[in-house]
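re: that chain from earlier
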Amino acid sequence: MTITVPQGVNPGQAIQVQTPAGATVQATVPAGVFAGQTFQISVPAAGTVAMVTMPGALNTQAAAPTGSGINVFASMPDIFIKQTRKGCLQEMMGCDANSEFIFGTRDHQPKAAPMGLNGPQGPPVHSIFYAVETASFFMRYFCSNMRPSTLGMFMGKDDTGAKVMSYDRPYRFAAGSCKVCCFQEMSFFDEKQQPIGMIKEPCYMCVPYHTIFDESEQPQFRVQMPTCCGGMCVDCCAEGCCNMRIPFYIYPADGDMDTEHALLGKTPKTDPKSSRNGSMYAQITKVWAGGMTELYTDSDNFEVEFPASATAKQKALLVGSVFFLNMLYFERQKQ
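^ sequence. v structure.
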């Protein structure tokens, strides 16, 4: 028996359905199946319900996120963020489109239609979250990647799912060394629109870094690309020379910012260039999205390896920092 998940129902929730014979039974929505999608149940003669994933349905990660709001990040060791090609024709004419993102994991990366979620290939696959930016045409055209904007993040494949969190970015002067005012920043809010923290550009000399604060303005992390030459230059070979990865390592709120002090994630790794003590460095990494995508669109892909000890709220702050870094560096890069 095929069941369509009603609007407002999330994975793990129980729903009552009526069988063709007229009996009412209870079924639990499988992990990774969201509103509007389908799954199958078998109804034995005794009336018990056993779930069977429908062939062709989402092949989701083994441990799909549970909970609501920012608590969905609690059990996630990593996340993969894919910017869709929404508005790529508009971008060819010199105007940034409102950014749109879908989320999966490193092992189950999301896929979307070529021209955004409303493209001819239908809804995204493996998408556990969805985020979309709101900014006026005037701001997008004249302010480009410096534009003030808001962004909402939702469960599932579009903005009809339950709200996870939101972000607000005011207009500030372009990022640069030795600034003394108008620092770039982005504020983060939970599903109830309560502040949970922010990321902000400090005054720096050579290689830029950014500090992540909680709602009490207490520093939680710092993010910076790996450096060399005593911190004077970006280490372009930190993750290898030919893998097209641009990492931002996650460091404690104080202390030196070098690989000896970089926080570690939960993913096992033995490569001495990108790990320590058998664990991958916690990091936000811009990864290669493909030649045509990189050359002709403003779409980017990111991986986030969360620090092993990070709380759900701290993970939410790091996810929000991805949008900040994308607008600050990688949208500007392609103009």
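The chain has two domains: 2-52, 69-333.
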